[in-house]
Amino acid sequence: MRKVAQTDVGGLAEGIAFSPNGQYLYVGNFVEGTMDILRRDGDTLTKVGSFALPGQPVAMRGSTP
Q1: I want to staple 11 with a disulfide (CB 3.0 to 4.6 A). Which of 3, 28, 31, 41 is the partner?
Q2: Residue 59 lies in a domain
């Protein structure tokens, strides 16, 4: 395993999960009550979206491709 990229997300990132194909990363932000969506393209992470959650993202589950 190696670090390939770094980016800013919302306050108090609380949970993360990769999409099944490993191209997207979902990050729950406790302070804002939002979910950020990041796309991985080689060694680059790009924020492609964010949406409000009905509460704080206290738990997240992902699966291994």
Answers
A1: 31
A2: no
The answer to whether residue 40 scores a pLDDT higher than 70 is yes
Cα angle 23-18-60, degrees, rounded to a multiple of 5: 155
Q: Is 42 left (phi over 0), alpha (psi -120 to 50) or beta?
A: left
| Rounded average pLDDT over 5-30 | 87
Other C-beta atoms closer than 10 Å to the C-beta of 32 total 17
pLDDT value, residue 46: 92
> Is residue 39 domain-resident?
yes
- 61 within a domain of the structure (yes/no): no
Instruction: Write out the H or E segment, with its range, that includes residue 24.
Output: strand 24-29
